[in-house]
Amino acid sequence: MSKRSGGGAIRIAVVATFAVRRAGLESIIRSHPELHLAGSFGTLASLVSFARSTELDVIVIDSDSIHDLLRERTSDAAIVLLAEVSDARSIARLLRSGVRAILSRESAADDVLSAIYAAYDGLVLLSTATADSLAGVFGDQLAEVDDELSEEITSRETEVLRMLAEGLVNKDIAARLGISEHTVKFHISSILDKLGASTRTEAVTLGIRRGLIPI
């Protein structure tokens, strides 16, 4: 997945079967300057040729055509899927095919935004119902994976953690990294969760103990 250079906008394509839902997704993206709507389509088939000739970071898909999505890998872009998927095997296959977020169609605009940022940063975001479906089948395996991932702090999160240690506020961190304050908040939340910290100060203390922050 391509990363922005110089803080450029995240390039996004939208696919939604119904015009009203497509317009809603377009509105969410257009209302945030760090996001760029590169294209909008009514079918996955319409997206395919466009994706082959256009560099995209994230594709937001509102569709029940799960089988088409599994069969046709549209591009290297991360996929945010808005659909009701309850079958654990289908969920697992979708995640292997490039889907990085699966949300309910009734998700709020803020949830869609969080999914876009998470997918862009290489993270996986699932609705509670989707996660529960996976846990019901792969519970033991997921627990082992979760134990491993919970300790892993990404390089970007390490940067944010070190800036917290410098006393920088979200706005300053966003400016220095060329990202949005929303993305900064997402990183901080992930850092607190991975370190098991309840405050920024505690996260910095734990970061120092683990050697993530040079003294």
Describe the structure.
With 215 residues, this protein is of the alpha/beta class. The chain folds into 2 domains: 10-137, Response regulator (Rossmann fold), CATH 3.40.50; 150-209, Arc Repressor Mutant, subunit A (Orthogonal Bundle). 53% of the residues lie in helices and 14% in strands. The protein is built from 10 helices and 6 strands; from the N terminus they run βαβαβαβαβαβααααα. The protein is globular, with a radius of gyration of 18 Å.
Give a quick rundown of the structure.
With 215 residues, this protein is of the alpha/beta class.
Any chance you could write out the topology, listing elements then pairs?
Layout: E1 10-16, H1 19-30, E2 35-41, H2 44-53, E3 58-62, H3 66-71, E4 78-82, H4 88-96, E5 99-103, H5 109-120, E6 125-126, H6 128-149, H7 155-165, H8 170-177, H9 181-195, H10 200-209
Parallel strand pairs: 1-2, 1-3, 3-4, 4-5, 5-6
Helix pairs in contact: 4-6, 7-9, 7-10, 8-9, 9-10
| CATH T-level fold name of the largest domain | Rossmann fold
SSE order, one letter for each helix or strand = EHEHEHEHEHEHHHHH
CATH architecture field of the largest domain: 3-Layer(aba) Sandwich
Please estimate the helix content: 40-55%
Distance between the ends = 34 Å
* CATH level-four homologous superfamily name of the largest domain: Response regulator
Q: Give the strand tally.
A: 6
Gross morphology:
globular
What percentage of amino acids are in beta strands?
Answer: 5-15%
Helical element count? Answer: 10
- Give the radius of gyration: 18 Å
Main sheet strand line-up: 2-1-3-4-5-6
Count of structural domains = 2
Classified by CATH, the class of the largest domain is Alpha Beta
Mean pLDDT: 82
Low-confidence stretches: 1-6, 142-150
Structural class category: alpha/beta
The biggest sheet, with number of strands, parallel, antiparallel or mixed sense and barrel status, is: 6 strands, parallel
